[in-house]
Amino acid sequence: MKTAQIIIGLGFGDEGKGITTDFLAQQHPESVVIRFSGGQQAAHTVMIDYKKHIHSSFASGALRGLPSYFTEHCTIHPTFLFNESQELKKKNGNVELHIHPLAKVTTPFDVFSNRKNVRNLEHGTCGKGVGATMKRNESPFKLFAADLIAPKSMLIEKLKGIANYYGFEGGVEIENALQDFLEAVDKIDWKIEGYNYLNSFNNLIFEGSQGILLDMDHGVFPNVTYANTTSKNAYEICRKLQVEDIEMFYVTRSYSTRHGSGWMSNEKSINLKNNQEETCTFNEFQKDLRFGDLDYDLLNYALKLDEAYVVAQQKNLVVTCMDQLDETFKLENLKVKFDEVYGSYSPYSKDFKRID
Predict the structure, then answer these.
(1) For residue 265, which of 213, 208, 215, 338 has the smallest C-alpha distance?
(2) Cα 308 to chain centroid, rounded
(3) Interval 332-355: pLDDT, tens
(4) What domains are defined for the chain?
């Protein structure tokens, strides 16, 4: 019987989904890790001994040697993907990546639109073109992973249509980015596979993106991500593959974070320790990482919301960054009964411990 673990962030992202994925990859080394939302804007950090990798275009089992799979709900950017594959190869990571034919492709036009659109900048963007890609794909100017293995002349025509969609008329910057994009398409050995590919694995690890509080249907609009960040997509795929033995891993830090603009409860300055390996500290689009006390009411809200999407045999909680504060996590404030509760006490998944 097939088994699955689904990893979901309970906040605004940056909860520790990468380290949790690596923790499960250690326990299930014959698995495939599946991304079921978001895309190249992810920054999921894994550290193994002296090696560190920030997973964006690959799932967070890659550094440990597991293959990756991106579903139709994800976006990919060939240039970013190729560049990251070169980094992973230097670290002896696994660059085997299979992609659903209907995964959305981000083009340089999407990236430039994301970065130059005033409303996007006001509402919050990571500058990787994900939101623009998802919105464009609601128009007739679609581009899917399957188009990357179509005749090159057809791909060029579709790119011309996307340029017209955005009103781009050339320029050195966009032309250079487009050349890099096309070169990456040629260099990558594309493995475009439907969900039948997943039938070759007995265990599936589903790695979420962002957090439930950024979900496009449930976050505070307009400061949301263009994705379903609940278990919705992962559970639908499990049903297609007739996977019934599902284990949930809900992830939160021991305090609250938010990278980007938008509402946040309990925001305040926090004195942290042992956080030298923090990945999402600052970028020109999202600015500084924001902090606050943990809001248990919001955790209960997110947990209740996800119950609407998934039926699981086991529910676990992972509390990360427990070495960065002296405060005790108040498990009694949560209304969900968990089968196991784990605490993370360093940037390394080997330091996960069960909390009694």
Answers:
(1) 213
(2) 21
(3) 999 999 999 999 999 999 999 999
(4) 3-101+194-354 (3.40.440.10), 105-187 (1.10.300)
